[in-house]
Write a structure and sequence with these properties.
The chain is built from one helix and ten strands. By secondary structure, it is an all-beta fold. It has one domain: Beta Barrel (Lipocalin). β2 (25-36) and β3 form a beta hairpin.
Length: 136
């Protein structure tokens, strides 16, 4: 059974983005899961390359804590994003940000290597994104 403590530390992060409404992309970097209070601060940092555009430094921050179905994921400002149960081999979650829909499937079957696959749809959005996490 996996819990918050199993994610603590630094992970290598490789992300592939297939975009139906714009250029495809790649993100290469790392993500730190740091204990803070009763949960984890999750900070991604790396380089994002979208199509032929110049590469950009990219950063993202989330908060993970116990709740919901096991782990509750929140945006950096504390707003709810989604929750999932990491105890099994995989977990699914959906987030609605009207008019957009974000669906994720987490795959833990190769632990400690794991992945998150996102499908995002909306009037001006349409992409598939796969994030691969590996221990550093």
């Amino acid at each position: 059974m996996r819990g918050l403590a199993d994610f603590e530390g630094r992970w290598r992060l490789e992300r592939r983005i297939e975009n139906a409404v714009g250029p495809d992309g790649r993100f290469t970097g790392h993500v730190d899961f740091r204990p803070e209070g009763a949960g984890l601060v999750v900070e991604e940092s790396g380089t994002l390359q979208m199509g032929q555009a110049p590469a950009l430094k990219a950063e993202r921050r989330y908060l993970w804590g116990a709740g919901g179905r096991g782990i509750a994921v929140r945006f950096a400002d504390g707003r709810a994003f989604h929750d999932f149960d990491p105890a099994g081999g995989w977990a699914e979650a959906t987030h609605y940000c009207d008019p957009d829909r974000y669906e994720v499937v987490y795959d833990f079957t190769g632990w400690p290597y794991w992945r998150a696959e996102w499908r995002v749809s909306g009037p001006r959005k349409g992409y598939w994104m796969e994030s691969l996490y590996s221990p550093m």
